[in-house]
Amino acid sequence: MIHSTELTILMVEDNPGDQFLLEELLLSSGIKIRKLFTAESIKQAHEVLKSEPVDIILLDLSLPDSFGINSFTSIRENAGYTPIVILSGVSDMNTALDAITLGAQDYLIKGDFDEKLLSKTILYSIERMNNLQALQESNERYDLVSKATNDMVWDLNLQTGEVYRNPEGWKKIFKTDYDPVQFGSEEKWVKQIHPSEREDVIKKINQFKENPSFQQFELEYRFLRADGNYAYLQDRGYIIRNEQGKAVRFIGATQDITPRKEAERILKESEEQYRYLFENNPAAIIIWSLKDFTILEINESTEKHSGYKREDLKGKSILTVGLAERAELVYLLAEKALKDKSFRETHVTRIISKWGDKIYIEFVSHRIDYMGMPCIMALGNNVTERVMLEKQLEEERIKAQKEMTNAVISAQESERQEIGRELHDNINQILASARLYLGLGKTAGDTQSLYLGKSDELIQSAIDEIRTLSHSLIPPTLSEGHLKDNLLQLFENVASGIGTTIYHNMTEMEEQFMDDNFKLAVYRICQEQFNNITKYAKAGSINFYLGNRNGNLELRIKDDGIGFDKARKSNGVGLMNMKTRAALFNGTLEINTAPGKGCELVVQFKLPLLEQIPAK
């Protein structure tokens, strides 16, 4: 309470007699005084206000450095919320009243008040200033709230029909300045409501007024704006009633919900569009609950693929209606989806249709929230033909792999036979002849040197034959730059062996981009083909090309020999061996030949080679 509070008082008075009289009245007034400051000028008063907190100021308007209303305005600038009471002479009455108008709390006529009136004036002035300060702070909060919110606060007096609306809120909603003449009554406001909703809004307002059980209200309607468009508004508020329960005021806030209504419209259209896409999607769509595996929704494509009708599946467990080949996979999928809200997985499963057919479906499963619960939406396409084709291709791949393996084994066996035949028919015969000459040399006497010399020739011949055979078996050195050198050595050996001419072109070959394994494969293909030419072609000339052409590495070996019938010799071990080596590096091999027209081998490898060479 103010009565029990000690006050700090500033007395601004230059007359010593008035000072003494005022001090005596203050001391006898019963007011508890903590401090009493006396200032004889405006300047001294400012110095006190700067250094000390003051509860009330008693101000004489006639001072040495200021006079009249200027004294009040000068003090008020530094007084803040401190109440000011004017001490006025009779001649200062009009000035004192002007000061009251400008914010002074009260005035006292000198010589015309006692200690009781002085006490009451001081206490009431402080109380009024406190109330004024609280009101101003409340108004400031109201203004801040009005600026911070997009709502328009309003107050409808039902007895007068007048409405106060917050101009700041009005401008935010309607983008125009508030016109109290046009919209300052309930009647004028109602006229702006959309005609199709006006009657219903009036009816609800009357219900709120007449029914005492309503303490709050809420309305939604369309309101005509100045630009000719309608805004969706929502009114919410409180009904103030008198002691008899009669409504006397509506206090509420108006919010522009046009964006929300527009979003609802778009959402509705989106849902309708989703429903259309859901029902007419060529993919089978199944929505099932992650909690109990219940099927919640299917579309027409699901009916078409499975043969089941909607009523056959909805409400049933996906585990029991033939749509899940293996229940444990469904459990695993559900476990992963429950842990990951962004779950997405693609898998192929086999279902049993209503007619008993086994159908392969590729499902893309997403986790979604449907009807307030975590669910899986699975979009499926019938991939039965693709799966069957993949199985067929896999069988063909396995068959081709077996053929390649058999070809490699056959090539190895053929090579062993060739080595055995070479050792038996050639080298063994040479060594046998050498042994015979050695035996004759032991008993030849004077001709011994002749037989020994012949034996030496035969042994050297056997060594040369063994060296040639070894060279054909040992992989050549094929590090950087050596493929070309080894091919040139191969050309020389073939040309000298069968007396043919070889024309070669390797200028477009980029050997630095080739792996050693790949070089060896190319070399073996060339070696095999030249071996075929040597044995069977009877060629007078051979054209050889190895280089980059049309984005591929191309190998061509063409001879002018006797050729052969491809239909009769298409499955030879040598040809299969070359095809196998080419296929290892994604190459293709083709033979162009006919009887009497020579033979051309064409092998093509796709570039770049380093990305396609198999790992060692």
Question: What can you see in these coordinates?
Answer:
The chain has 616 residues and is an alpha+beta fold. Helices cover 48% and strands 24% of the residues. The strands form five sheets. A five-stranded parallel beta sheet has the order 2-1-3-6-7, with helices on both faces. The chain has a five-stranded antiparallel beta sheet with strand order 9-8-12-11-10, sandwiched between helices. Strand 8 and strand 9 form a beta hairpin. Helix 14 runs antiparallel to helix 15, helix 16 runs parallel beside helix 17 and helix 17 runs antiparallel to helix 18. The longest helix has 60 residues.
Low-confidence stretches are 610-616
Looking at CATH, which topology of the largest domain would you report? Answer: Rossmann fold
In CATH terms, the superfamily of the largest domain is: Response regulator
CATH architecture of the largest domain: 3-Layer(aba) Sandwich
